[in-house]
Specification:
The protein has 74 residues and is an all-alpha fold. Helix content is 50%, strand content 0%. Helix 2 runs antiparallel to helix 4. The two termini are 22 Å apart.
Length: 74
């Protein structure tokens, strides 16, 4: 699901954030926060709600192992 917006291999195009190579802790904390919002603020909140905290941790750890691309934010 992530790669539909954030690009193949986490390398986004078209204004979305690249997520490959970001800190696992940062990804985990962001997704966990999104999953717990009482009122969803956007599509990411709804996406995050589809996963358990354990699944979010696995996603975060996987994305952190991917190499950053030229269009990564940091």
């Amino acid at each position: 699901m992530c790669f539909q917006c954030h690009g193949t291999n986490g390398q986004a195009v078209g204004g979305f954030e690249s997520i490959a190579g970001k800190s696992a802790r940062e990804i985990y904390n962001e997704l966990l926060e999104m999953s717990k919002r009482k009122t969803p603020e956007g599509i990411m909140d709804l996406q995050a709600r589809a996963f358990t905290p354990g699944q979010i941790l696995q996603i975060a750890n996987y994305l952190a192992t991917m190499p950053k691309g030229a269009n990564s934010d940091g």
